[in-house]
Design brief:
Layout (H helix, E strand, L loop, with lengths): L9 E7 L3 H12 L4 E4 L8 H4 L20 H6 L9 H14 L6 E2 L4 E7 L4 E6 L4 E9 L21 E4 L14 E5 L3 H13 L2 E6 L5 E3 L7 H9 L1 H9 L19 H14 L2 H5 L9 H18 L3 H6 L13 E3 L2 H4 L5 E5 L5 E5 L2 E4 L2 E4 L2 E4 L8 H4 L3 E2 L6 H4 L18 E3 L12 H21 L4 E4 L1 H17 L28 H13 L5 E4 L4
Parallel strand pairs: 1-2, 1-6, 2-3, 4-17, 6-18, 7-16, 8-9, 8-16, 9-12, 10-11
Antiparallel strand pairs: 4-5, 5-6, 13-14, 14-15, 19-20
Helix pairs in contact: 1-15, 15-17
Bound molecules: flavin-adenine dinucleotide and NADP nicotinamide-adenine-dinucleotide phosphate (NAP).
The site of NADP nicotinamide-adenine-dinucleotide phosphate has 27 residues, from helix 5.
Length: 541
């Protein structure tokens, strides 16, 4: 397969996206001597960490876990400086990886894939870009990210706004000067919660518009202790293996007790001790059943509510910040060292836009009911068309002309989140129906990339041209994703996990909520059973 004419525009694989998924996929393809082309809309690598340069942006998975495990040399040489790496540090890491593994030679930047169509004869994808490229490839591999299609709500009057506005996921490289500015931040998901305290330190005034209050757990972010890092690095492969055996893909002790089998005093002591560690992952693994039993879940929720009351001076503001309409973890948990404290500042105002929604954006501000927040800058931390958005934006068609958007009109239909029937050799990294955003995403990416590259190797070794799932396999997997989703709390609330933040988007559980260990076993079993649920056909010669 690698013997195709190197001067032609026919590739073994086209990969869409040069974040952590696309970079590792490319590395594996290069290592097999395959001809690959990566298209990336940005000017450089890093994906999420290239686009999200907003103040306060950082990861909430510890750096020693939120990093590639595939190269011992890489993980030994790279020096993280903080427990939770900041956006600039993660971006520097991504650039280091790109240089170290000589990835850039096969990446075309500032190029967006705008169309892809499969042709049965020859079994090839034709891929089109916004720069006029038209290339063919045997495999089309999406590494387009789950959170790379920013969503700005269709607010009346936005075009009339005379100040400047930004989405957290499209932050300007040169940064934004907030000094002396009155700023509105719309949205209290992870991005808004991270950005607000940092912007408030610089701006004249911040108006935070909140529709749904979130649970925010304490996250201290100490500089990494050199001795502790050396300890991990001395046995990094074992550390990674422990992470692989966890639900979240993070090297963390798994709990042993139910929250309901200890006395209330003991439970409080355990929560308090784990809260003080300042690591959300430690806090959420206090007990076995926080995410599986509503009564147990309520004990964690109530603990956080009490923390809010104890930190926020104004009881009215504290009550507004208190989540009461969803279970702990039904929406993505947020972490911060300073979020609740920031409401004790004189220059921060919390505006409830649940009772009275945002009516319109005026030339000078945001109108909520009869009140107008007069501002110079608006920050939209309003989220993403998550998980399916980046894939569906590519206008993917099969050989019969059916678009993926048409096939997924009632929600995504996939086998293992990796493939979908009728679209041969389309393989998706962290696609819908896989653990993706519910776990350490780099761990999920590595597992998918390795599964895909091993599968391509298997196909080549056995002269197989195409792979696609059976209808039965994707129906069964869809039922499993829905069943596990219904048992978790994510289906109990209208969050982006359910597609509920985008008008008209089907409401279905988008990620697989059974955890990484269980999911990996499914994928391994499929291979052990000779790619059960897939149809492998044709000759690749
Ligand atoms: P991305 O990093 O999103 O990269 C996809 C790339 O594809 C982008 O660069 C995009 O420009 C490109 N692309 C998309 N469509 C096209 C197209 N049609 N043509 C060309 N290029 C295209 N995960 C965690 O596990 N822990 C965290 O703490 C965490 N924090 C996060 C914080 C923020 C602010 C956000 C937004 C996400 C966070 N995530 C976190 C999730 C994060 O997205 C993943 O961890 C990871 O970076 C995803 O890598 P990726 O390569 O799959 O996708
Ligand atoms: P998000 O979680 O989807 O939050 C969007 C926010 O905007 C919500 O508070 C939402 O309110 C609000 N909103 C949307 N439309 C609105 C409208 N019309 N009026 C008023 N409010 C509106 O988006 P995000 O904060 O960017 O986070 C997305 C994901 O990225 C996270 O869940 C996480 O996976 C990842 N992330 C992680 C980190 C981290 O700490 N590591 C940081 C940033 C992002 P409702 O809740 O009421 O819909």
């Amino acid at each position: 397969m690698s013997e195709s004419d190197p001067s032609s525009d026919d590739f073994d694989a086209v990969v869409v996206g040069a974040g952590f998924a696309g970079m590792y996929m490319l590395h594996r393809l290069q290592a097999r001597g395959l001809r690959a082309r990566v298209y990336e809309a940005g000017t450089s690598v890093g994906g999420t960490w290239y686009w999200n340069r907003y103040p306060g942006a950082r990861c909430d998975v510890p750096s020693l876990d939120y990093s590639y495990s595939f190269s011992e040399e890489l993980q030994q040489e790279w020096q993280w400086t903080e427990r939770y790496p900041s956006q600039p540090e993660i971006l520097a890491y991504a650039n280091h990886v790109a240089d170290r593994f000589d990835l850039r030679r096969d990446i075309q930047f500032e190029t967006r894939v705008v169309g892809a169509q499969y042709h049965e004869e020859p079994a090839r994808w034709t891929v089109r870009t916004d720069r006029g490229d038209r290339v063919t490839a045997r495999f089309l591999i999406t590494a387009a990210g789950c959170l790379s299609a920013p969503a700005v709500p269709d607010f009346k009057g936005l075009e009339s706004f005379e100040g400047s506005w930004y989405h957290t996921g499209l932050w300007p490289k040169e940064g934004v000067d907030f000094s002396g500015k009155r700023v509105a931040i719309i949205g209290t998901g992870s991005s808004g919660i991270q950005a607000m305290p940092v912007i408030a330190r610089e701006a004249d005034h911040v108006c935070l518009l909140q529709r749904t209050a979130n649970y925010v757990t304490l996250a201290h972010n100490p500089a990494l202790d050199a001795e502790a890092v050396a300890h991990v690095k001395a046995e990094y492969p074992e550390y990674r293996e422990r992470a692989r055996q966890t639900r979240l893909g993070i090297s963390i002790e798994t709990p042993e007790h139910s929250a309901l089998e200890v006395s209330p005093e003991e439970r409080e002591r355990i929560y308090e001790r784990r809260w003080a560690v300042g690591d959300a992952n430690v806090f959420v693994t206090s007990f076995t059943d926080i995410y599986s039993n509503l009564d147990a879940n309520e004990t964690a929720a109530e603990f956080v509510r009490a923390k809010i009351r104890s930190i926020v001076n104004d009881p009215v503001v504290a009550e507004l910040l208190t989540p009461r309409d969803h279970a702990f973890g039904a929406k993505r948990l947020c972490i911060s060292e300073e979020y609740y404290e920031a409401f004790n500042r004189d220059n921060v105002t919390l505006v409830d836009v649940k009772q009275r929604p945002i009516e319109e954006i005026t030339p000078t501000g945001i109108r909520v009911g009869d009140d107008v927040c007069e501002v110079d800058v608006i920050v939209f931390s309003t989220g993403y068309d998550a998980i399916t958005g980046p894939i569906l934006n590519m206008n993917i068609r099969n050989s019969a002309g059916l678009t993926l958007n048409e096939k997924w009109v009632n929600g995504p239909v996939t086998y293992l989140g990796l493939a979908t029937k009728g679209f041969p050799n389309l393989l998706m990294i962290t696609g819908p129906g896989s653990p993706s955003v519910l776990v350490n995403v780099i761990a999920a990416i590595e597992q998918h990339v390795e599964w895909i590259s091993d599968t391509i190797a298997f196909m080549d070794d056995n002269g197989i041209a195409t792979i696609e799932p059976t209808e039965q396999a994707e129906q069964d997997w869809g039922a499993e994703v829905a069943r596990i989703g219904a048992r978790s709390f994510i289906s109990s609330f209208n969050a982006w996990y359910m597609g509920a933040n985008i008008p008209g988007k089907p409401r279905v559980v988008l990620p697989y909520a059974g955890g990484l260990v269980k999911y990996r076993r499914f994928c391994q079993q499929v291979v052990a059973d000779n790619y059960a649920g897939f149809v492998l056909s044709g000759s690749s010669s």
